[in-house]
Predict the structure of Translation factor GUF1 homolog, mitochondrial.
Amino acid sequence: MLKIILRTHNRSFQRLIGITRKYSSYEDLNDDINNYINVKTENIRNFSIIAHVDHGKSTLSDRLMEVTGALKKGSGKTQVLDTLEVEQERGITVKANCVSLIHKYENEVYLLNLIDTPGHVDFGNEVARSLSASRGALLLVDANHGIQAQTLANYHLATSKNLKIIPVINKIDLKNAHPERVTEDLLMMLNIDPDDVLKISAKLGIGIDKVLQHICKKIPPPISSKDLPFRAHLFDSWYDKYRGALNLMFIKDGEITVDQEIVSCENGKGYVVRSLSILTPEERKVDRLVAGQIGLIGCNMRNSQEAIIGDTYYLKGTPVQPLEVFKKLKPMVFAGIYPQDQSQHLALKSAIEKLVLNDSCVTIQPDTSPALGHGFRLGFLGLLHLEVFVQRLEQEHQSSPIITAPNVTYKMKIQDIKGVLKHYNGKNQIEISNPKHFPDPQHVEEYFEPTVMATLITPAKFVGAIIGLCVEKRGVQIKSINLDHDRILLKYILPLNEVIIDFHDQVKSLSSGFASFDFEEHEYVSTHLIKLEILLNGSPVEELSNICHVRSSDQIARNLVAKLKELIPRQMVEIRIQACIGSKVIARETLKAFRKDVTQWLYGGDVTRRKKLLKQQAEGKKKMRQIANIQVPRDTFIKVLKR
């Protein structure tokens, strides 16, 4: 009997030891899945990291995961949340990614839902979506470069949503770091108390514990209740070829379990929940999700278009009031995308739809070109957004599409003259993003082009070059502010068409990489636009037309005809390549015909025989010019239209 009592006592003691040992490290805390689903709502912290490009957001995410045990130290893994191949190649974040972390602070277990956001202006929609599910944000600033243009934009976006801001100065270990100067800038520009600023080195792990303390102490818990009916906010989704659309949701109220049926407020369709997971960062199955948490819900949603970002979901039979939908950014740059071969059209369509599920800001419209066949006209937030989208098509879906030159949407006011408006469905104002839809200039009363409000922060010694570039791009200066003894902030209104191509690259080139550039949508302004047409031997080629400002039309025309002269193969007839505005030719190149020596077989005889052959050749070429169709290979269109 005594042996049994001692054995039982030893087992109880071993169990107690096991429990103590179980939570003796952060790794053990993360291993217990119950810590994720049983945590109190008041101990949940949903926050994002916002910063300018290359200020260390992904590195800080890695350190936070290491300290909390979600990532093993010394594993050799870096930029863990940058899962896309394009992110690893370019070294930038293009997709917001979420990870759930368990952290023990003051004998309480906290669930930290971290969302790592992009820093480039072209991915501002990702930042907006992330902040819609957050209650706080870490504002990360590089101690070497200081406050940049996108730092200001992200800060104002976060404060407009009433998020708690925790300012963090990163890279204090660098040789040229100036954390004191950056602290003064934060006080002067953003009115942030220097005592609230944390100074860290994400690379070396310095100060990471203080960051976690501030997250637990200062960021408020989500405004959620487990007692209310289930209500969830969809803020991200992606496509899995085996499970369909997977939806990342913020559980606002109530709880959800597997096999329950949820209904979309947007389209009224119901879906049976097949799987529930949390990201730690790998996907881990759970049996339920409760209020305040962020989780991944799989519900056999096969049609990727049904997953609407910003949608609200509820349990079948218990309808709720939809949550506030965040404002989606409008596309600003448009480009045509066509398959290399028309047999690949359906495959390209499927690939685009799956990517758009993961990037809801891209708009799609069917398009047709006589030269390139059936394709699509896509809208993007910027040129980098376009480049990343195309690169993802190539890497993730093995597609190699043809991309036409990007352009923007113009507005045109049609004259209210009897009989004219019927050609435009009775509308007196139309929007044009494709040159082939450009109206007759006689019908247009006024043209309007989109502009952006650009913010440039540059060292003082580069101000002259930056201002010269803005003037060249038809910019209008709004303000100029001295941030400190060395840096100046410039505000310009610039035409969007002048910004989308290479403005950012030129700013970096002129300033040796020290200037930063950010822009936001402004307004449409009156302007003078023209349609630049390309004629080959007098016949217009609609695919090569272009909409441009009258001031830059000459340069564009000369470049285009020179490029066509190089690309169009020589033929039996002479080809006149002309760039025209209406009936006026503003640039011309001539592609000489092949010259066949018809007299090469003559070996003496009278000179009249030679003249007779040359006359016959001249008459034949004259007749050929009248009836011949110029053969322009498809590859030529691709090379000209391609960016």
Remarks:
- The radius of gyration is 31 Å.
- The first strand starts at residue 44 and ends at 51.
- The CA atoms of residues 371 and 637 lie 7 Å apart.
